[in-house]
Amino acid sequence: MSVPEKNAIHVILATDCGSTTTKAILIERRPEGYRLIVRGEAPTTVEAPFEDVTRGVLNAVREVEELSGRTILNGETFITPARDAVGVDLFVSTSSAGGGLQMMVAGVVKSMTAESAERAALGAGAIVMETLAANDGRLPYKRIERIRQLRPDMILLSGGIDGGTVSHVVEMAELIAAADPRPRLGSGYRLPVIYAGNTEARKQIRDLVDGTINDDTDRDRGWTVELAFPWQSMKPLAVADNRALPPKDGDVWRIDFSRFNQYKEAPPSRDPGGWAWSPHGAWDSHVPECFPYIHFSTEPVNRVRS
User: Fold this and answer.
1) Is-above-0.85 flag for pTM?
2) What is the CATH number of domain 101-210?
């Protein structure tokens, strides 16, 4: 969601993910100024069986919708901009779970890139648990031990300038990859590693941290896939309700994609071996009521309609 001009902000939705409760508030611009309209709450869903904080956020927002009479969500997507009693102009979210966002930062030079990364994290309201640097005097295995001990919510890696050397910042990425850091909350949560530095090192760092594409000799943090289905092959699915193929602008389908893995994450992770596009809350991929909504549109992807 892009940030609108100040004068264009009339409706604001703000959420906060706490350790046990996720809060959502709706703020509207009135002639006398901005006013709090309603507040909604829902249990935070960072732990099993959901392990996805967005579930709690969406539930809290749905309560705001019910209390205010304003339609904010189109399926699981925020409607922007606001028009009459539909949508919001700005959505902001914070986290106070476990005492707020806890970050580890790393850089090449302690007094330069590492310090800059620390200032950026503090400026975002995070608690900086540790600052690592290539020249901080610690041996590599000591840095790896420290990363494993911390269990941060997020790691920020910074270093180098475009066109400069890449070796030092790549070495820091190698330490992060070797440590295989685990998050504090949610055993299946994928801990984010943010890189801000020399663009020429981007691919090497991504391969180190996330894993390499089409290479099963190393361990990846995740995967992506692109699928293409001929519309003609879906004809048997469309016959029952006489839906259009290809879909028309504005059509809505419910489609589920699931993957079942032979590999399972070792304990204490609760890895069931099955992944689904949206949480089902049960070991069953045949629950149509849990399938995500797919909205077909001829408009650009960055524009959401009510």
Assistant:
1) no
2) 3.40.50.280
